[in-house]
Amino acid sequence: MPITKAVVPVAGLGTRLLPATKSQPKEMLPVGRKPVVQYVVEEIEDAGLRSVLFITGRSKTAIEDHFDRDVELRRSLTTNGKHDLLDALAYEDANVEFFYTRQSEQLGLGHAVALGESYTEGQPFVIALGDSIIESQGTPSVLRRLIDAFEATGATAAIAFEEVPEDHVHRYGIAAPADGALPGVGDDVFRVADLIEKPSQAEAPSRLAISGRYVVSSAIFDALRKTGKGKGGEIQLTDAFRILLAEGHPIVGMRFRPGEKRHDIGNYGSYFRTFLHFALQDPDCGDGLRAAIREELGL
Ligand code: UTP
Question: Buried b vs exposed e over 246-285: b needs ≥16 C-beta within 10 Å?
């Protein structure tokens, strides 16, 4: 049976982006012309999935409103002949069905994912973090290849990894790849021997950082039930993967290809950078922005 469902956790408090996130979700912050979570949904739809469960929280209703078809706005734009602006609402016609459930207490990413158990009905599914945009290079996309790797290897989970600079490994969950090639898949797919949460440079077994996209079988829910509070007193998804590994479940990793990138907007440094990256590609405003930046920098 093909994988059709994605769970998108968007319930985090986004405290690193205060005050911007006091009363609006960080996943709704604009990057160029679109909110972050719209990129995530477009990525999911492009990968062939047809159903999304958002794990939301208080002050996150803007996400539901964004994906709701706004008939009144459409009528007004049509009446006023603003067809170019109507095009900006084309995403409302996405071939994806949306579901929402609340994480009433922010007990961590693992806890948020656990709320997807009845929705996924025992079938494998995708987890896509709502605060990270994955930029693919051509097709098939990172997410599509990750799903293919999951299916081809029969693993319990497939995790996407981005190679990060050595002095950034302490910010991420890092893979310890197992020795030896996996049969029947490309060399960007490898067996994960272990996952080390935020290691020092000296401890890091690689520079391969967990990057916000996963495909998992329903075994993840049993593992999450066994997962105690970890870093920050939260139920960590990475800890659940470590339980699966300890129980002998095979987990595969997939490396990004050259030019592919995760844009995590969780802190101001990366949010500003991500905004700039996408705004510079804007067909109408990119060149003007480039000129303005040169002017700002006195170049
Ligand atoms: P983060 O780890 O960045 O946590 O979440 P956060 O709480 O949103 O941010 P800070 O640290 O307070 O600034 C990664 C993704 O997991 C979701 C977030 O919404 C984000 O998309 N998440 C995190 C949940 O859904 N629930 C949680 O309890 C924690």
Answer: eeebbbbbbbbeeebbbbbbbeeebbeebbeebbeeeeee
- Indicate the fold that domain 5-266 takes in CATH: Spore Coat Polysaccharide Biosynthesis Protein SpsA; Chain A (3.90.550)
pTM above 0.85, yes or no: yes
* Ligand 1 first shell, C-beta below 6 A: 9-16, 27, 55, 103, 106-109, 111-112, 129-131, 266
Six-digit token string for 42: 């477009």
Tell me: the pLDDT tens digits for 92-132?
A: 888 999 999 999 999 999 999 999 999 999 999 999 999 99
**CA distance linking residue 35 with residue 159, whole number of Å:** 25
Span from the CA of 51 to the centroid of ligand 1 (angstroms): 21
Map residue 187 onto helix, strand or coil: coil
Phi-psi label, residue 76: left if phi above 0, alpha if psi -120 to 50, beta otherwise = alpha
